[in-house]
Design goal:
single chain, alpha/beta, about 15% strand, globular, binds 3-methyl-2-oxobutanoic acid
């Protein structure tokens, strides 16, 4: 089973890390049977599961409810929980209370967006014995400041900033760093700049691992097709087909059949 030490070892051994998001019990049970290394209960659940337009709407209560469901289904996996919007920006006590609640709900680690602004809190959390995953590049909680879902670190100054940020996060004690939506070359530079593993989403092939949103890789939303996404299934068509099959069988009364009926 993956633990926090596994992450650094994997980087040293040049063995890539796979991570997927998960928000509920039934998909957690499937992931638990799979070879996937690690689960992220991402605040993207606000969008994927609750239909909000951004992760800004994720609350601590929401995160706790989904973490609890996931850990009930995925006993054998390392589960990282996102610290929700502003939970890390209201002072150390509020931050530590949120960390306590997520860890006592069953998470194995927390993930925090941002670098310089969060470095002291991250160091404090790590000091307190809780593993922290960093997250830089496109940080969706700052979407209103970034002006949309845009590739980050394109210019030289921004790229250097991201390299410096990754070093800062390593210094603060992060055991891994998510790199979201940055150019391929920068993904490589950042991954070489730190000794902790980087886990990319839209950050090219040179990061030490890759993460995708489960629903995206399964093809749940046919309209969502960013450049970085590879779909491994077409769940949208599969589910719609199953539902229409059930509907037809009800209409033509072929369901339930005698063998599906109590005598
Ligand atoms: O919330 C999330 O799903 C994430 C991943 C995209 C890394 O932070």
């Amino acid at each position: 089973m993956v633990n926090v030490q596994t992450f650094t070892k994997r980087k040293q051994q040049n063995r890539k890390i796979s991570m997927v998001t998960c928000y509920d019990f039934w998909s957690a049970k499937i992931i638990n049977q799979s070879d996937i290394d690690c689960i992220l209960v991402g605040d993207s659940l606000a969008v994927v599961m609750h239909g909000f337009d951004s992760t800004v709407h994720a609350t601590l209560d929401m995160m706790k409810m989904h973490v609890a469901a996931v850990v009930r289904g995925a006993h054998d996996k390392f589960v990282v929980a996102d610290m929700p919007f502003l939970s890390c920006s209201k002072g150390i006590t509020v931050g530590m209370d949120a960390v306590q609640e997520l860890m006592q709900t069953g998470a194995s680690a927390v993930k925090i967006e941002g670098a310089a602004h969060q470095a002291d809190l991250i160091a404090h959390i790590v000091e307190a014995g809780v593993p922290v995953m960093g997250h830089i590049g496109l940080t969706p909680q700052s979407i209103h400041n970034l002006g949309g879902h845009k590739v980050q670190g394109k210019g030289e100054t921004d790229a250097q900033q991201l390299i410096d940020d990754s070093k800062r996060l390593e210094q603060a004690g992060c055991f891994a760093i998510v790199l979201e939506c940055i150019p391929n070359k920068l993904g490589d530079c950042v991954s070489r700049a730190v000794s902790v593993p980087t886990i990319g989403i839209g950050a090219g092939p040179h990061t030490d691992g890759q993460v995708l949103v489960l629903h995206d890789l399964l093809g749940a939303d046919p309209d969502f097709c960013p450049k970085f996404l590879r779909r491994y299934a077409n769940v949208n068509q599969l589910v719609a087909g199953a539902l229409n099959g059930f509907h037809e069988d009800v209409r033509d009364q072929s369901f339930p059949a005698p063998e599906e009926t109590y005598g």
